[in-house]
Every structure is written in structure tokens, then in C-alpha cells.
Amino acid sequence: MANKSRKISVEFGKISRQFEVIESPIPHILVESKKELHGWWNGIDPDGNRECTAEKLLINHYNGCSHNCLFCYSHALGGYFKLFRKNGVVTVFTDFDKKVARQLDGLRVASCGYLSPVTDPFQPINEKYGLSERIIKEFVDRNIPVQFTTKGRVSDTAIKLLKKQEHSFGEVSILTRDEDKRQRLMAGGASIDELVRNIERLADENKIAVCRIDPIIPYVTDGRDDLDDLVKRVVNAGAKHIITSCVDIPRALKRDFYEELEKRFGIPKKEFERLYTEKISGRLHANIEYRRKLFRMMREICDRNKVTMSLCMEFESLDGKRVRGLNREFMSSNNCEGVDVPIYVRREEGERFEQVEGCDGNCLKCHFSDKAPVCGIPDLKKAGAWKLRDYRRWSRDIVEEQNPFRKIQSALANCTH
Length: 417
Fold this sequence. Notes:
Elements: E1 6-12, E2 15-21, E3 28-31, E4 56-59, E5 62-63, H1 80-87, E6 90-93, H2 96-105, E7 109-110, E8 112-115, H3 126-129, H4 131-141, E9 146-150, H5 156-163, E10 169-173, H6 179-185, H7 192-204, E11 209-216, H8 224-237, E12 239-246, E13 249-250, H9 254-265, H10 269-275, E14 276-280, E15 283-286, H11 288-304, E16 308-311, E17 315-317, E18 323-325, H12 327-330, E19 344-345, E20 354-355, H13 363-367, H14 388-402, H15 404-413
Parallel strand pairs: 3-6, 4-8, 8-9, 9-10, 10-11, 11-12, 12-16
Antiparallel strand pairs: 1-2, 5-6, 7-19, 13-15, 14-15, 17-18, 19-20
Helix pairs in contact: 2-4, 4-5, 8-11
């Protein structure tokens, strides 16, 4: 008797869409993509809620992640992310590589592509659909930098593609040196040995490898000896930079998070309730004294191991709404990812993109500088939350600057008579 197909509904406000669930290799649905590339969610103004120094074109071609990390903030998101949290079903945006290609071909200015800020690009479903490698190829074919962050095994194809583009790099996230703890913190993902091997494989191909010890979880992975040993191991494997943070908790997930930590590690909920007293942007953060002590320790460890360090989205609350980033106290690199990746432009349609000479990619530093941006794009100095339409607008500006007739037209239009 044939198996009946399973259908599932996804709610977006008052709208509900129904999809057929494909059960193998893990439950997932296929969605035709209408997604657009975009920049960071927050700009530096008005509240200071940005620590990401460089611009990025963010790419989430899978929603939901079968690594299923206990602390993942995407569990608090709606839509397709909620579908994974409630039903264990991953969403695959099947044609996103083609959408990416068309969107990039419409641009004259681009920043580094980023796979993926929310869900892992090398989770098991990628072995079936290969979207990560296909999207990386679209960037590399146009000579646009691209990076990835993963807790899975990086494919050989992805590393070979990165090797073709000068400023492309990889980030490998390793939570702890203790494999038993790692397995209790996440349902899937690669072993610690395999993750360290990712770093070695990137380094062997002369590609910069960044290690994210991110997030550190109080009472679980915050021991000095454990962190010291982990930093030593990844630096010996070839990591050139360390990114770290202290886990924060979406307020909607607080109860579940505390209960799971008590169940998995025997840490009483009251310990976290005493520690997590700061509310920033809808999330609970460990108190600032604990975090400063933790980050001072990490900076000492990284300095001793001769590797640069930065923080990821760590803030101090100023007045309940405005915040100040902590990287100014603890970061030892120029850019927060330890890599200087310039803005890329192309002057003629159909040409490959080329780096802007003299640009180090640090738009946040440029924001606080009195100097004009070397990229010639005033908006980027604002360190804002940019959309694809902004990149298109900047691209039109480049076209007009290249066309003397259009410059004359623009000047005449602005004349006052």
C-alpha cells in the first residue's frame, strides 16, 4: 500500500499556506523563493544596535536547521522557522541560487555574501540540494567575496570555490573542547574533530579560517582551562581569528532554555535567573559584570596564543533603549571578523567585480570618521540596515557617474533659474 503524502500548513499572520512534506533525508518542504539579498537587520543609528563592522549580503536559503542547537535564537522566529521548531520540518528555497544570480547581475556594487546568519549552510539537507555550493559559485563567478559560518562539515567543493576568490573566507563554530557537552547542546552537527579539520582544510588551501567560540554558555562552557585548550587547538589548526560571545536568550524562550539546561547539565534554573538580569532588544543578557569578566579572560587567552579576537553582537545598555557595543573594549582586530574585505564594484555591465582600492571594508569605523568613504558611496558611511533596493540605487549612481551625458542632465535638472 502506497504511503500517503503528509501536508502541513505554515502561517504568516492571517495567511496560511499548505505544503507537501518530503520525508527523506529529513522532513522538509520545497518553496519557490521570493527572497532578496539584504544587509544587516540594524543600523548604528539611532540606538547604537550594530557591532558588525563590515557590510554583508545576507543569505538564508534554508529556514530551520537540523543541527537544532539548544540556544539558537531562530527558535523564537515565526513563519518557516516556527515550522521547524514545532514540527521539525526544514524549508528549502529551491531556486534561490538563480534568484541570487539575477540579483547580482543587476548590481554594480556589492559587499561580501554571507551564508548564513541564521541557519547552517552545511546542515545535512544541503547534501541533497547543494544550494550552498551553487550560491557560493554565483558570487565567485562574478569575483564577489563570500563567506560561510558552519557547525557542519564543509564540502570539498565549497573550499575549492572559495580558493578562486581573493577575499572569501570560512568561519567554523566550535562551542567547546568537550564532545559530550557538544552533543548535549545540539542535536546534529559535526564532531569537534571534524570541525577542527574544517579549519585545517581551509588553512591548507591558504584561505583564512575564523573560529567562532560563540556563544559561550555560563556554567557549561565558560571554564578558563577548557577555553584556553580550545583556543590553542584551533590556532594550531590554522585559525587566524577568534569570535566570541555570551549566549543571550529571547525572552519568549526563557523558560524552555532554563529547563533544558537543568535537564541536560543539572544546573538549577535559579542560577540563570540570577545571572540573566539585563534586557536588550527583547533578549535577556548575562549581567554586564559577568560578561566583561568573561571577555577579559578570552582576550587574555587570545593574546597569549597570538591570535586576534572580537565579540559578536555584545552590547552594554545605556538607558533602556540605546546601547553601546563592547568591541571597543575587547576587539584586537580591525574588522570584527578578523578579515578586511573591501567593497567590490564594476564599472561596466558584464564585467567582473573588482575591489575598491584603499577600502578595508570597515563601514562602522568609516561612520565615526571625518573622512569621506573611499568607496565613493556616502550611504555606506551611515552603517545602516540596507536592502537590495539600496544596492540597486547605488548601482544606478555608479552608472550615472560613468555617463557624461547623464551627469550633464542631472546638473541641468538641479539648476535653479
